[in-house]
Amino acid sequence: MTCSENRIRPAIAQVKRIILAGSIAVLTALSMACGSDSLTPPPHTSRALTVLGSGQVQDRFTGEIWSFGNVAYTTTWGNRGAPGNAVKIWDVTSDIPTLIDSLIVPNAVTLGDIQTSDDGQLLVVATEFRPGSIVLYSLANPRKPQLITRYTTALTDPGVHTANVAAVGGRLYAFLSVDNTSTGPARLVIVDITDPTAPTQVFTQTMGSPFTHDTFVRDGILFIAVWDAGIKIWDIGGGGRGGTPSSPVEMSTLATIGGEAHNIWWYKNANTGERRYAFVGQEGPGLTGATSSGDIHVVDVSNLASPHEVAFFHVDGAGTHNFYMDESRALLYAAYYNGGVRVIDVSGDLSSCDASQRDLIGRCNLAEMGREVGHGLQDGPPVYVWGVQISGGKLYASDMLNGIWKLSLLP
């Protein structure tokens, strides 16, 4: 769920050093040169999302976003003259998000995921680099998170890149994707946070090639994005294989086309209950704040033991990062970095298309099929949209360059 693996790709290590040194003038110039004007225009059937308002952040790069009720939380990343160690807290009651406070996370260089528990009582923040950790806060007052504890061990170093919070079997877990280093591989760490005052590790395993990046949990099934190794699907209580969070059972592995598997959403049709497709975001090479690449890959998981890729969605000149779904309407809202926000109709059979709409290996091209039905943040200032979330009937987008946006959903 977090920003560009460009920060650890040797080929662009120098770019990262420039960015982390705070060379914002260089970044701004590149952003202007590579903004939305350079992208292929969306098809005529794609409707513009209305921008309702924005909350500006200029002191730090904005990272992940999470909204619950009338409050939204955004993390910060890297260095923009100030380290990415702040959680921005927003009142989103009105159309224009209003900054309430900034929560500084001590001993953090940069922050990754942020998420509340389903009941809105707990806030979990992932931190990098050493000491890698998750920080747990009480949301008894959502506007003033209070520290409960910080969970850090040798196995969360050198940093927790993403942390997904999910309930399984009546208990609450955090699924941590831990960074790799030159001396140690990436790993998955599962922590029981049912009692947030005493988090307990229940499972760990090294995995990923070279990263393990993100997870998605639903109905007792764990999906793991393991970069060039593709995705893994594990039974942790719902797959009929006897798996649990402390003793997962692997059901299958699929190497997606092109690798760089960054994030996953397993779509559950809200009307029929069908769970046929998983959408996998690919994060290709790019320049933070300016350019990006990477497709959305559609994987048929109707048989969890035998997944196969059937379709993809591509945007010229931009790449996807995180996404969120309006499952009641079969619409996928995708953050597309310098390409703004894209809305894709994923209803029906995504593996059925004309021969002219297939690539050389038989996958359906959703863009050629006219599946893009909406777009946003393409007509204003240059953007670099990290994440999106639907909450309270609105769309929230985190933009590394500008802060937080509030938009209407597709009508």
Q: How would you describe what is shown here?
A:
By secondary structure, this protein is mainly β. The chain has a single domain, classed as YVTN repeat-like/Quinoprotein amine dehydrogenase (Methylamine Dehydrogenase, Chain H). The protein is built from two helices and 30 strands. The chain has helices spanning 13-20, 24-33, and strands spanning 47-48, 51-56, 61-68, 71-77, 86-91, 98-104, 110-116, 122-128, 133-138, 146-151, 160-168, 171-178, 187-192, 200-206, 214-218, 221-225, 231-235, 249-254, 261-266, 277-282, 296-300, 308-313, 323-326, 331-335, 341-345, 364-365, 372-376, 385-391, 394-399, 403-408. It has a five-stranded mixed sheet, with no helix packed on it. A hairpin with a 2-residue loop joins strand 3 and strand 4 (71-77). The protein is globular. The chain starts with 12 loop residues before the first helix and ends with a strand. Residues 4-43 have low confidence and may be disordered.
Short description:
The chain is mainly beta. The protein is built from two helices and 30 strands.
Helix and strand arrangement:
Blueprint: H1 13-20, H2 24-33, E1 47-48, E2 51-56, E3 61-68, E4 71-77, E5 86-91, E6 98-104, E7 110-116, E8 122-128, E9 133-138, E10 146-151, E11 160-168, E12 171-178, E13 187-192, E14 200-206, E15 214-218, E16 221-225, E17 231-235, E18 249-254, E19 261-266, E20 277-282, E21 296-300, E22 308-313, E23 323-326, E24 331-335, E25 341-345, E26 364-365, E27 372-376, E28 385-391, E29 394-399, E30 403-408
Parallel strand pairs: 1-27, 22-26
Antiparallel strand pairs: 2-30, 3-4, 4-5, 5-6, 7-8, 8-9, 9-10, 11-12, 12-13, 13-14, 15-16, 16-17, 17-18, 19-20, 20-21, 21-22, 23-24, 24-25, 25-27, 28-29, 29-30
